[in-house]
Design goal:
The protein is α+β, with helices and mostly antiparallel strands and about 260 residues long. The protein has 3 helices and 11 strands; from the N terminus they run αββββββββαβββα. Helix content is about 25%, strand content about 30%. Helix 1 crosses helix 3. The termini are far apart.
Length: about 260
């Protein structure tokens, strides 16, 4: 270890190694739990059923200062794949944690996609950091819950559904399909500013369901699929990464077992 003294290790020398071992234990436990849950469900550990759709994402220029992020400072339109889901898979009329997963194709160049994972949340300065069960998929915001590093600044991300006569739209696949049959669902994607207000950076349009089973998912991963200048911060990163790895490993084990 850098800075250690050569020779026989003292009790102080042993402490960092023990700390590292203890630090790995929670992540290993989380990964194991998510692997088991995914294997039992035969799908993602959380949000086991959802509707995967084709859509597009248009970066908007609001006239403000540059984001210092390549894909946000050059307005354009990208193909997107979107998965809308319910966290626990509760009956459709009961509130549940709603998920909005987005893959922006080629956001950071050819073959370099960007994933976003957002969860139904509150609007307040505290509740925007907390998951909030909801019964209607288009009657409240979705949040990244933890901050991103956007152009060197810490910013929470959020998606706000545009007002729609489609009400209520339960977050189950059947209800979402019915709603999309009458037209797209549109979300304004925003980043938190220094005064805790919101600044729009893109418009997400969810258009048509794709022919995937409800339990199928693209394996969204915000840590692997990120863009230059636009990546999740360190808060809870180890735990969330372990959860993703466990969920994917459990699904693979189910498929071959």
């Amino acid at each position: 270890m850098k800075g250690s003294v050569r020779g026989v290790a003292s009790p102080r020398d042993d402490a960092p190694a023990a700390g590292r071992s203890l630090g790995k234990w929670p992540a290993a436990t989380v990964e194991g739990a998510f692997r088991l849950l995914a294997r039992l469900r035969g799908g993602p550990a959380l949000h086991p059923q959802g509707l995967t759709c084709a859509g597009d994402l248009e970066v908007v220029d609001d006239g403000g200062r540059p984001w210092n992020v390549p894909w946000l400072d050059a307005p354009g339109r990208y193909a997107a794949t979107v998965r809308l889901s319910r966290a626990a898979g509760l009956p459709r009329r009961l509130p549940d944690g709603l998920g909005l997963a987005v893959r922006v194709e080629h956001a950071d160049g050819t073959g370099r996609s960007l994933d976003l994972l957002l969860t139904s949340s509150g609007r307040g300065r505290v509740t925007r950091h907390l998951p909030l069960p909801r019964a209607d998929a288009v009657r409240g915001p979705y949040s990244s819950l933890v901050s991103y590093r956007v152009g060197g600044r810490r910013r929470l991300l959020a998606a706000f559904p545009r007002r729609s006569p489609k009400a209520p739209v339960h977050g189950d696949p059947a209800s979402l399909s019915e709603a999309l049959a009458t037209g797209p669902l549109v979300f304004d994607l925003c980043a938190e500013t220094t005064d805790r207000s919101w600044r729009a950076f893109a418009v997400l349009t969810v258009r048509t369901p794709l022919p995937l089973r409800q339990e199928e998912s693209l394996g969204f991963d915000i840590f692997t699929n990120r863009a230059r200048g636009f990546a999740p911060g360190g808060a809870l990163a180890t735990t969330r990464r372990a959860a993703y790895h466990g969920s994917r490993a459990g699904r693979r084990g189910r498929a071959v077992g």
